[in-house]
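Tip: read the tokens left to right.
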């Protein structure tokens, strides 16, 4: 991977350029960077021309529709939080300390948040703590689901499975066989969560988004495009 940058409306954006074993070029605008994907087999001059073309496309897109500033969700003391088939009551208190903490007891999540922090930072602390504590409760379920899907469809070697508080992606799969699933998917329908698990399992076989990758996904989830559509339409609304 190489990094570059571009400027739109006076704002500088990080550009990540991935050289992959793929047949086509692709560009996408993520929350943290513009991502460009280039075939390794492409002629160097052609790679350069495509990168310039895709940077220009991203620049025009960002100038026309600037990204919204991300704000952490706000929670209130006594609020009920539903994640999957579980419901938790929040008990939020504040104390003059440097860090924030959380614990779970009898379906009540007790959060003690630093009162020395600005409101926006307090909200981020609460969101992060909720993601961590509920993810810890649900990790055994996601491990069981992924292992069952793997045994049914792929029979690949999995190293470790984690829940992560990812905001810019739904999941990831490393070359070492580690699978990460975003805790945001705890707010998604079960079939959508299952699709993302399948998506990452296929990356154990194909480490790109080639035609072969999508063929394997479709074989396991014939209506996967409907799941992708749900994520695109609802993704901004589901998070801790």
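Filled-in amino acids:
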């Amino acid at each position: 991977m190489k990094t570059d940058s571009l400027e739109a409306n006076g704002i500088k954006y990080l550009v990540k350029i991935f050289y992959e074993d793929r047949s086509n070029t692709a560009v996408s605008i993520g929350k943290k960077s513009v991502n460009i994907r280039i075939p390794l087999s492409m002629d160097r001059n052609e790679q350069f021309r495509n990168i310039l073309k895709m940077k220009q496309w991203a620049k025009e897109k960002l100038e026309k529709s600037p990204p919204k500033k991300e704000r952490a969700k706000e929670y209130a003391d006594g609020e009920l939080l539903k994640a999957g088939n579980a419901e938790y009551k929040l008990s939020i208190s504040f104390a003059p300390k440097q860090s924030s903490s959380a614990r779970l007891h009898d379906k009540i999540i007790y959060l003690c948040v630093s009162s020395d922090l600005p409101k926006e930072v307090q909200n981020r602390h609460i969101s992060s703590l909720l993601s961590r504590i509920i993810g810890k409760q649900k990790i055994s379920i996601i491990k069981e689901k992924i292992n069952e899907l793997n045994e049914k469809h792929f029979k690949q070697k999995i190293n470790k499975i984690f829940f992560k508080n990812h905001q810019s992606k739904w999941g990831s799969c490393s070359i070492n066989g580690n699978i990460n699933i975003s805790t945001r998917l705890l707010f998604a329908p079960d079939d959508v969560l299952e699709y993302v698990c399948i998506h990452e399992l296929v990356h154990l076989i194909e480490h790109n988004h080639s035609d072969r990758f999508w063929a394997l996904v479709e074989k396991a989830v014939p209506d996967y495009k409907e799941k992708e559509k749900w994520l695109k339409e609802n993704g901004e609304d589901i998070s801790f």
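Residues 119-153 form the longest helix (35 residues). The chain has a mean pLDDT of 92.
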